Amino acid sequence: MGNYSVPESIRRQKPKGTMVKNISGYYYVYEYKSVKGDNGERRTQMGKLIGSIKPGIGFVPNSSFLCDSEISTLEFGEYAVTLANSQKTLALLRGCFNPEDALSIYVVSMIHFIQGFTYMKDIQSYNDMSYRSIKYPSLTLGYESLTSLYESLGRRQGSVIKMEEDLVAASSGQVAIDGHVIGCVSGENDLAAKGYKFRKIGEPQINLLMAYDINTGTPLLSRIYEGASIDKVSVKDLINQVKFKNMLFVVDRGFYSAENLILFSSNGNSYIIPLGKNITACKKAVSSLEMTGRFMYQQGRKASVVEYKDEIIDGSRVITYRDLNESAAEQANYLRHMEMGDKAYTQEGFDKFKDFMGVTVLQTSIKDKTPQEIYEIYKKRWTIETYYNYFKNKADYGSLYQQDYYKTQGLAFIMLVSSLIRKEFEDAVKVVKGKSAQDCLLDARMVKADKRRGVWAVCNCRKKQVELFKLLNTSLTVEIEQHT
Known about the structure:
With 484 residues, the chain is an alpha+beta fold. The chain folds into 3 domains: 8-68, no CATH class; 73-252 and 384-484, no CATH class; 270-380, no CATH class. Helices cover 40% and strands 25% of the residues. The protein has helices at residues 8-11, 63-68, 77-84, 87-94, 99-115, 120-128, 132-135, 143-155, 158-169, 198-201, 231-241, 258-264, 280-285, 324-339, 347-353, 371-380, 383-395, 405-428, 437-444, 463-471; strands spanning 18-23, 26-36, 42-54, 58-61, 73-75, 174-184, 205-213, 219-226, 248-251, 270-274, 293-299, 302-313, 316-323, 359-364, 399-400, 448-452, 455-459. The strands form 3 sheets. Strands 6, 7, 8, 9, 10, 11, 12, 13, 14 and 15 form a 10-stranded mixed beta sheet that branches.
């Protein structure tokens, strides 16, 4: 036996598909495979080092070998309940995209919903560690595949626009549009620029515009624009992305311009928009605050009396409202600051502003609705603040490293689909009393899938999880699909 030979007792301890080398008296274990040489003959090719064999101990794997070995425990619960309660979104995707792309978009968007914003390079890892990896075993979500997917979504938008048109057609016809600033730390992004929030976020920005149904909360379309572009300019492109007909746009004052008002009221559409204090029509409206009518406005358990006056100013319908509860609260807050000695709050200031507290001035092209109906529609628009908190607090799209223009637009669509999944899931969890969507995901997260003797099984189920899965119509079995 030569100095570099390996004893039989050592060879018996190596894993299958490996080879052992004796180097200076130490036994190292390597992967190997059989390859065909140029001459057509097969030979053994040594692979990477995966561990060593120590006499008296046996095979000792190194850390990389453990990382590359098969995962035997997967995240199951949060993915299972989301899969079971977002099938409408998947069906919508399958109606607009080929089956493989539809499934890829769906799974990537689900990862964004559950994990928050996730970089493309990390998507595969999250997928490998979750139940989806065995439910959809043929799905490939590596960096190169995702790069191609995102770019295709941004460059070939036929299917994207078809899906957005389907969403708009199925909507209630009352649409809100708002913008969301996202910091973008990639210096090579075609859309990144210093915008109006540069001082606050300290980096270039890109702007996300999204439209959604104010009655159902369903997102309808989204697009990302250059950070230096203001929303009232970008909205023209967003609205022209799909055909809007006989729709009511409920937008904020940042979209006000004479050109946009024509756009919002063309093709049978109409609008409701609050007026900024520097707009001429607003100045004329508040020059006299003698209200001519009142109604009770109720939101949930809270009710308030709202006064109003309805007039035509420069050819447009302008309605001035004063919420008496809101006015009283603002006055009390001002007086409290005065009592605290805040120098910015004075008696002169109070006397000057008190009549304007709780006042909202709306301009609308609608002729056949009462001031109360106009006000109630407008107040629905403020659900968007909670909606956009999803991007800020949960989805965490705070800073992007996205560089390519087309991939960035692809990401905008992924964000839309992620929001559709969120909406569908939040609707489903309403049957779970006292629990939010986030609470349900956290409870479901405790449930894992373990591979035992070659069979996947669900484990770590307590009574609370069993009841939750039952309420959310989710099976506690590991289901595997062989084809996408």
